[in-house]
Design brief:
It is built from 6 helices and no strands. It is an all-alpha fold. Helix 2 runs antiparallel to helix 3 and helix 5 packs antiparallel against helix 6. Keywords: Membrane, Transmembrane, Transmembrane helix.
Length: 179
Amino acid sequence: MTISLLVILGLCSIEVIAILWLIFRNHHSISRMHGMVLAMALGMGVGLLIGTILGAMLHGNLYVSTIYSILIGLSIGFIAGIPFHISAVIDGSLAGLMGGMMGAMLGEMIMMTSSEATIKLLSFFITMIFLLVIYTIEESTEKKHSMLSPFSILKHKYLLLFIITIIFIGLKYLGPVTA
């Protein structure tokens, strides 16, 4: 596994934890419909990314990569839907299950020479979608609470997009981990 993949996993993990924290902190300010969309986006994104990574790493063992990615995507979708309603739990769980299956199939189908490039591109898209999810949470809570934190995406959205784009461009030049 290269340093760039470790950075990508770390960045996506931080984003997922931040989204879950925002959901649990502000679930009273978020409508049920937004809660369903948030749970679905989180479950699908995590399942798809983890499934692709596991499918590429465990190339040739589709069963194991599918089961693990389904369990991870389903769990995150389930956890994200808990504060809202049972329909959000069902929606997030099924989206995580489907994302895990599709990610494992994608990871299995890509050639080993282009697996890292595919994972980087997919993680860039998912990172940007997760930023939109954070933006949606903050926009929903801003209507009810007029005060935003200094780390709010609403205040610094273009700077954050620029920084993340530069990080992903810089990941192109990182090599493998030497142990």
